[in-house]
């Protein structure tokens, strides 16, 4: 297993606070991401408290569980890790969603560090990088472009 990284970003013509207001709730990514199903928080968890687990279900079946590792509304970021079931053979997958000031408004960066075999990297890039990260960032571009 080799250490890997994945990153996608976009710049939006909006304030960092406005973008964070749209995406900063760990418990509600389906509110802004068109391909993520609604999630629930296990045991009534708080979406701002590390240790909270969000569960994504599709047709009554759990498709993903993720644990919040760190949340900082002041720096507009949160970090989480994948739990079972993991759809790809990756280990120690830790992702960060962050919003930073940019001269044109706000930059949103979605990144991850993980370990995997070489043959898994193209699938991680396709599923998480293109399918999840890029799709979510494209939805944000559409949202903040149409709200001008």
Give a written overview of the molecule.
This protein is globular. Strands 1-7-6-5-4-3-2 form a 7-stranded antiparallel β-sheet. The relative contact order is 0.25. It is built from 2 helices and 7 strands; from the N terminus they run βαββββββα. With 148 residues, the protein is of the alpha+beta class. Helix content is 23%, strand content 42%.
Outline the fold blueprint.
Blueprint: E1 2-12, H1 16-23, E2 39-41, E3 53-58, E4 61-72, E5 77-82, E6 91-102, E7 105-116, H2 121-146
Antiparallel strand pairs: 1-7, 2-3, 3-4, 4-5, 5-6, 6-7
Characteristic key phrases:
seven-stranded antiparallel sheet, 148 residues, alpha+beta, single chain, 42% strand, 2 helices
Residue runs with pLDDT of under 50 for 5 or more positions:
none
Number of helices: 2
* SSE succession: EHEEEEEEH
Question: Widest sheet: strand order?
Answer: 1-7-6-5-4-3-2
What is the helix fraction of residues, given as a range? 10-25%
Number of beta-strand segments: 7
Shape: globular
Measured between the Cα atoms of the first and last residue, the distance is: 46 Å
Mean of pLDDT: 93
Class from helix and strand fractions: alpha+beta
In short:
This protein is of the alpha+beta class and 148 residues long.
């Amino acid at each position: 297993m080799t250490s890997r990284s994945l990153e996608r970003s976009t710049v939006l013509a909006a304030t960092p606070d406005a973008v964070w207001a749209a995406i900063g709730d760990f418990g509600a990514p389906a509110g802004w991401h068109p391909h993520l199903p609604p999630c629930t928080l296990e045991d009534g968890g708080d979406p701002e408290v590390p240790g909270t687990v969000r569960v994504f279900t599709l047709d009554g079946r759990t498709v993903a569980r993720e644990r919040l590792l760190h949340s900082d509304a002041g720096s507009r970021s949160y970090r989480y890790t994948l739990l079972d079931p993991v759809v790809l053979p990756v280990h120690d997958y830790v992702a960060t969603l962050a919003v930073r000031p940019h001269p044109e408004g706000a930059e949103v960066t979605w990144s991850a560090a993980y370990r995997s075999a070489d043959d898994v990297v193209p699938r991680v890039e396709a599923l998480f990088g293109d399918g999840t990260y890029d799709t979510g960032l494209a939805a944000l571009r559409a949202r903040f472009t149409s709200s001008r």
